[in-house]
Specification:
Elements: H1 4-14, H2 19-26, E1 33-35, E2 41-47, H3 49-57, E3 62-66, H4 70-73, E4 82-83, H5 90-97, E5 104-108, H6 113-124, E6 129-133
Parallel strand pairs: 2-6, 3-4, 3-5, 5-6
Antiparallel strand pairs: 1-2
């Protein structure tokens, strides 16, 4: 079993090269099925913008997680999003461990790659509902908060 800490190291190191596939392949899983620390299979889903928005709108237990860098967040963010930079390494893992695992997490980054990694990491530490925004913020056509 791959620990969350080792998964995070692999995710950050392997980011530019087909990241989610590499992380998932190292964990010996199929598609978006991941075994968490409790050996239970968890899932994360890649959702189109339309699916992501619709599901988010109908989810009373939602949490929007932006895993981009602070510099990227300066370009704008999806309303109500909380930023935890995946590049923080162990700091990212420490911060997500503080989150309520019973919530549904709608996760995004710039292009969808790092947020896919974040969903995989979250699943590996017991988050059962993590939804990745395909295409990320750069393809987002919804409302944006600009600073």
């Amino acid at each position: 079993m791959v620990s969350a800490k080792n998964l995070l190291k692999r995710a950050v190191i392997s980011f530019p090269v087909n990241s989610v596939f590499l992380v998932c392949r190292k964990m010996n899983c199929t598609d978006s099925r991941l075994r968490g620390n409790d050996n239970k299979i968890n899932y994360f889903m890649d959702l189109s913008q339309e699916e992501w928005e619709e599901q988010l709108e109908n989810d009373d237990n939602s949490f929007i997680l932006d895993v981009r860098t602070p510099e990227e967040v300066e370009d704008g963010y999806i309303p109500d999003a909380v930023n935890i930079d995946i590049h923080l390494g162990q700091g990212f893992l420490d911060e997500i461990e503080k989150l309520d695992k019973s919530k549904s997490y709608y996760v995004y980054c710039r292009s969808g790659a790092r947020s896919g990694q974040a969903c995989a990491i979250m699943n590996s530490v017991g988050f059962e509902k993590a939804y990745n925004l395909e295409g990320g913020f750069m393809n987002w056509e919804g409302e944006v908060v600009e600073e």
